[in-house]
Amino acid sequence: QERPVPIFETILAHDPELFLMIGDNIYADTHDIDLMRAKYARLGAVAGYQKLRQTCPVLATWDDHDYGVNDGGADYPQREASQQAFFDFFQVPADSPLRGRPGVYDARTFGPEGRRVQVIPLDTRYFRSPLKPGEKRLGGSWVPDDDPAKTMLGEAQWMWLEEQLKQPAEVRLLVSSIQCLPDAVGQETWSNLPHERQRLFRLIDSTGAEGIVILSGDRHWAELSRIDEGVPYPLYDLTSSSLNQLHPRGTPTQNSRRAIPETFHRENFGVVAIDWDQPDPTIRLEIRDLEDAVRLTKTLRLSELRP
Fold it and tell me: How much is the pLDDT for 92?
């Protein structure tokens, strides 16, 4: 929020129907909620962001830095106040049911029957159990924890997610602030809580939810991951990050599940473009750079995202 965000203008040129802010939307990193609100105000004053709000709906979830603490989870003492600051900035109505429950998870469905897109921003912060530290590696020091009592989403959110996945939709964008499919190689991913990731895969299977594509951020680079084992159909995880916050290292961590060998390390944003007019509708996943050049792309058929 302290730096220029010229990529907003690139995004606006696409005339988007929906924009997803999926975490680290500001760098708050504070227990001082007044300071957090001031940092949100800095983002809110950015002309490109203001234009975006006027162009299309904006749905959001948070990651650690806008939640309030690096790699933070349920032990962050200001999580309730941070949640209210988040809702205020993203203009959640005062009478919204979201304000009456812990966490910022949400779900919306867009489009008519036969062309419905369900968007499910998850909350991977408010309820998340402490992670297990280990030996420092390239990506960080977190290691997988087999403790079945630890949670990523918390029971209330898990129950809610099951109900959402039973709702009718042709395409489902499952939004996770942290990567879901890549290997656990030090950084925060769902792989650090393997029981929880397997629970997600089982839930997708048991609910019969078709058309799922996972969208993630956090890493300060872009990549596309895929998994085929233990899931009812191939799952893809499109990671786009960051809009204006480059990582000084510029080196990706190991990921044996890359669907495309290349990664991209400059400013970028992700695009999900659905062509409903095909007999078998297509879902085009893209990573685009500041100049709007396509850096990574993969086109899926909707029929591929079914058991």
Answer: 97
**Helix spans in 56-150 (H):** 64-67, 79-89
**Contact at 8 Å (CB) between 161 and 168?**
no
Alpha-carbon distances, residue 47 vs 7, 25, 91, 263 (angstroms): 12, 15, 17, 30
**CA gap 262, 294 in Å, rounded:** 12
The pTM for the full model equals 0.97
> Any bridge partners for residue 271, and if so which?
286
Per-residue burial over 227-242, b if 16 or more Cβ lie within 10 Å, else e, is: beeebbeebbbbbbbb
Residue with tokens 């005339």: 15
Query: At CA 87, angle to CA 179 and CA 199, rounded to 5?
Result: 35
Q: To 10 degrees, the CA torsion angle through 274, 117, 102, 140?
A: -30
Element (H, E) at 55: helix 47-55
Structure tokens at 175: 């939004």
- Give the DSSP H/E element, type plus range, for residue 282: strand 282-289
Q: How far apart are CA 133 and CA 13, in angstroms?
A: 43
- What type of residue is 103? G
Given pLDDT bands bounded at 50, 70 and 90, which one contains residue 179? very high
Distance CA 174, CA 216 (A): 9
pLDDT for res 115: 98
Q: Hey, what are 54's tokens?
A: 């006027």
232-282 per-position pLDDT tens digit:
999 999 999 999 999 887 788 889 999 999 999 999 999 999 999 999 999
